[in-house]
Amino acid sequence: MSPSRIASWLVPLMILSVILASTAAKGDHRLSVSYYDKTCPSAQSIVQSVMASRIAADQTMAPAVLRLFFHDCFVNGCDASVLLDDATPFFESEKDAEPNDSLRGFDVIDEIKSHLEHSCPATVSCADILALASRDAVALLGGPTWNVQLGRKDSRGANKYAAEEKDLPSPTANLTELIAKFAEFGLDATDLVALSGAHTIGSARCHHYKERVYGYDGQGGADIDPSFAELRRQTCQAGDDARAPFDEQTPMRFDNAYYRDLVARRGLLTSDQELYGCGGPLDHLVKRYSEDGEAFARHFAKAMVKMGKIPPPPGMPVEVRLTCSKVNY
């Protein structure tokens, strides 16, 4: 067959792949652990293989990918909207929102997607890749694993305003604000405490914690250990972008040290320390997690499954993107 005739067949086939990826979103949206068992049985092993390789090379990719999933699900639901560049004149990228300006790990998701498109074209959504990669990020740093519900679709739009102004929990939020924000997405106070345990790995910029460590008098408030406040002020001397670990002792091990830090008044962010110190039921839960790592692991896994079911808004056009950073055409 001549090259011109081959090319004439390739174009409609490529268009058909895009159509199939988009129209698949019009069917049943219920999630299932076995969603890809027939259409892409190697999906989970591909995700796990890439994640293992990338985290072996750079452990900070684990909290980076986990953070991507949180920031995705809290804006428009778990729809991979956080991965989109400015692909159309109809929306602005969530990547450009201030809370997202330090997000990393996009290249990891792109690498996984490339492998999956080779093995199972137009089948596995970027939203499902984020969900699986987050599970593997936790497990590869010694945390729990869980069965990921699959079958999400990718949105054809993003919401920079929601990411910037209203949907993502603020690092300076108080407990009332945090409980209210999580409740908007069907997550209760127990989910809030368990999911906050993701801060047992990774780090934050001084910009997000300097208000806590300096306080009104420059010495930190009554709810912070003075030596810890001084240590973090020293970090901030390098500038607003200077990073400090959430957990000084085991910053790259997914364990319950985060909760021991809260009990010791050494939570890095205001929104961290707000979970402990009010004398209410959340204090009891933080104390329990600080003493029982297995209980934390179980509750974290359960809360991740629950958060992963936050759907896109009704009527949101969805598809299976062929490239995670842009919509299909």
Which helices and strands appear, and what pairs or packs with what?
Layout: H1 3-23, H2 43-57, H3 61-73, H4 106-119, H5 126-140, E1 154-155, H6 160-166, H7 175-183, H8 189-196, E2 203-205, H9 206-214, H10 226-236, E3 243-245, H11 257-263, H12 270-273, H13 281-291, H14 293-307, E4 318-319
Antiparallel strand pairs: 1-4, 2-3
Helix pairs in contact: 2-4, 2-5, 3-5, 8-14, 9-10, 11-13, 13-14
Disulfide bonds: 40-120, 73-78, 126-324, 206-236
Pfam families: peroxidase
GO molecular function: heme binding; lactoperoxidase activity; metal ion binding
**Mind summarizing the main beta sheet?**
2 strands, antiparallel
- Coarse morphology: globular
As a whole number of angstroms, the C-alpha radius of gyration is: 21 Å
Q: For the residues shown, what is the average pLDDT?
A: 89
Please bin the fraction of helical residues: 40-55%
* SSE order, one letter for each helix or strand: HHHHHEHHHEHHEHHHHE
User: What percentage of the residues does DSSP assign to strands (E)?
Assistant: under 5%
Task: Describe this entry's structure for a reader.
The protein is mainly α and 329 residues long. The longest helix is centred in the first third of the chain and has 21 residues, at 3-23. The chain starts with a helix and ends in a 10-residue tail after the last strand. It has two domains: 42-167 and 309-319, Peroxidase, domain 1; 175-304, Peroxidase, domain 2 (Orthogonal Bundle). 48% of the residues lie in helices and 3% in strands. Heme b binds at residue 199. Substrate binds at residue 169. Its main location: secreted.
